[in-house]
Amino acid sequence: MEIRQYLNEQRLIVETALKKYMLKAQGPFARHLESMRYSLFVGGKRLRPILCLAAAAAIDPDRSLRENLLPVACALECIHTYSLIHDDLPAMDNDDLRRGKPTNHKLFGEAGAILAGDGLLTWAFDLLTGRESALPPERLLQITHLIARAAGSLGMVGGQALDIAYENQDFPFEILQTIHRSKTGALLTCAVQAGAVGAGAVPKETECMIDYGNQIGLAFQIIDDLLDATATTEQLGKTAGGDAKRGKATYPAYFGIEASKKKALDAVTAAKEALAGFDEKAAPLRAIADYIYCRSN
Description:
The chain is an all-alpha fold. It has helices spanning about 5-20, 30-40, 45-60, 65-85, 105-130, 135-150, 155-165, 175-200, 205-230, 235, 240-245, 250-255, 255-275, 285-295, and strands at about 95-100, 100. Helix 3 crosses helix 8 (about 175-200).
């Protein structure tokens, strides 16, 4: 399949839903909501919501299921966007650019950026549990729990804390694995798992989706690390070379460029092998795995 066309089509579906669900910048909270909307709509691949929808379609291609899962998909994007806003703050990665545009705190100030991130995180759970969702309650409860765990201290937030704690330090490989698995992999894995649960997957199918998610999460972060080390700021849409400057724990720092490329490719291969029991309905997931390896930003 032509993966870029598929991703663009799915991105537009997600964008339309985000615009439908997201609060308008009006009333007494207009400036705060403008800050939230700025980062949410400044660009992005929408990969996590697309993975959620693609995983569900691999289990059950019913179009109505996609409509029911859109609030979940949009909630995942809100959480991802909040993490980027906070990641760019001076107290964390201190970056001036995100997706080729000024970072949130450069336009709205540090306090405004912190609160925009807080707003997007909590709005995600409003989407998950509000009237927009038409999933069966037991599936929705399970998905909400999965997302809360993946986004929190045992997932993305914990990974970010470790990422900062091990700057400019020697680190064992186990720490590097934990940082990548938590900071980036947790929400990517959760996206495909949420889609599978929403589609009513049986335990074996869900296990395969989790395995796939773990592998693409690893590949995604390794490629992110490689791009930071080899691409330009213009290509990335954010400041290149930041990992080395901050002494981050990365695969290139630990293994070098070529060995890291091989490990990313091995992870992509393992991700596709995890889908061996699925038919052509999982073709988008296989193509996304290849896209993650070949992406340039």
